[in-house]
Amino acid sequence: MENKLNIYNTLTRRKETFEPLNPPFVGLYVCGPTVYGDAHLGHARPAITFDLVFRYLQYLGYKVRYVRNITDVGHLTNDSDDGEDKIAQKAKLERLEPMEVVQYYTNRYHKNMEQLNTLPPSIEPHASGHIIEQMELVKRILENGFAYESEGSIYFDVEAYNRKYHYGKLSGRRVEELFANTRQLDGQQEKRNPADFALWKKASPEHIMHWPSPWSEGFPGWHLECSCMSQKYLGDRFDIHGGGLDLQFPHHECEIAQSTAAYGQEAVKYWMHNNMVTINGQKMGKSLGNFITLDQLFSGDNGVLEQAYSPMTVRFFILQAHYRSPLDFSNDALKAAQKGYERLMAAVAALDKIKASPDNTADVDALATKCFDAMNDDLNTPTLISHLFDGVRLINSLAAGSEKINSANLEKLRTLYHDFTFDILGLKAETEAVGRDHEALGKVLDMVMSIRTEAKQKKDWATSDKIRDELKAAGVIVKDTKEGYEWELENA
Ligand code: ZN
């Protein structure tokens, strides 16, 4: 690999040169959604961030196995060891089978991900499909002395683990403070220490999702599935584990502890975390009234939104920020992203029409180097995009004839823009959106043209001419035909 990729490892807190454990193969595990509601803006960021990682690693020539799980059991309403299962709660509310809820929201999640042009993962395992493997993992951790049984539930023994290993190394939390600060919740009397977490929970009578086990009729703890399924599909040790910063503690900290307790070594070489999305400076939440689903974002059907934003506008908006920086949603920022996206796509289209010249004033190699340097510097997409916009100025000058490019450089420039825009950033032309706009415009024109016909019938030439002239000024060319009329846009 000629291009040396550097990525920031959350575990070591520094940028490291990416060296896969077993090149050219790369194992990539990303925590996926808990499927009990529609995907929202918060889901789009990790999906697009790790789609970028997946795409770029493949572009560099690696063979990537990308595993992203579906959480469909064990994730409780308070993200802790008490409360109701999020899927089961929804199922009761809607009078559905839990697996109906799972299927319904998984389908909708997939549709949204396709709209955002994220590539599907290589494997998408469900937690509920790996109950046996999760029980095996619990047994291993018990055998190794890092878990204990209490009232039919199995808890991870953080204190015992921390005597041998280091609990808190990923999040930087201090165990003494965790032991002292974790608030007492109902049911915690079962635990030896408030920092302990459930590997297996005995199901209460009203709990509808449960399986038989040596300890009780119950269900796995939320953190267990990721330790289990990453090991099953990527091995005891694999390259990259990703997820949102909100999962760093406790979810990922617990994953590290579970895998280390079971296999005696850490599973993950590089931990990557994307930062969060805020809305007008506030955390997004249903209680705050600023909760925006992706469907609402694409249709504009939400009070926070001044208009609809297309999937590619949303994708471009997310890529315009570095994945480790916070990203604030606002209508102004989205509108700016829409303009930026359209400007980039217009330049890529214009590039195909530019003709080569015997002379050359364009330095394509220098531009390409800058673009790769940006990506190799911890996937710095904002810097990459600013270089691509420098190139847009070049493309516009070439189109205007004020700069010249020879055929070899023109080929390089086209390849550069196609590779970065489509393959790496994963943008695409939004023909569907254009089609919809075209259809809507056609209906408006039918109405306007019927008014013009009426005016003509009344010999109201002033109105008839006015309509024709105004349409022309707006860039709509209308021709009368025997059947009625034909129209086209001036620049299309
Ligand atoms: Zn996970």
Describe what this molecule looks like in 3D.
This protein is α/β, with parallel strands linked by helices and 492 residues long. The protein has 16 helices and 15 strands. The protein has a 4-stranded parallel sheet with strand order 4-3-9-10, with helices on both faces. Strands 5-6-7-8 form a 4-stranded antiparallel sheet. α8 links the parallel β9 and β10. α12 runs antiparallel to α13 and α12 runs parallel beside α14. The mean pLDDT is 92. The chain binds zinc ion. The site of zinc ion (ZN) has 3 residues, from loops.
The multimeric state of the shown protein is: single chain
Instruction: Round the Cα radius of gyration to an integer and report it.
Output: 28 Å
The CA-CA distance between the termini, in Å, is 42 Å
Strand content: 5-15%
Number of strands: 15
Kindly report the average pLDDT value: 92
Structural class: alpha/beta
Principal-axes shape call: globular
The strands making up the biggest β-sheet line up spatially as: 4-3-9-10
- The amount of helix comes to 40-55%
* Main β-sheet description: 4 strands, parallel
Count of alpha and pi helical runs: 16
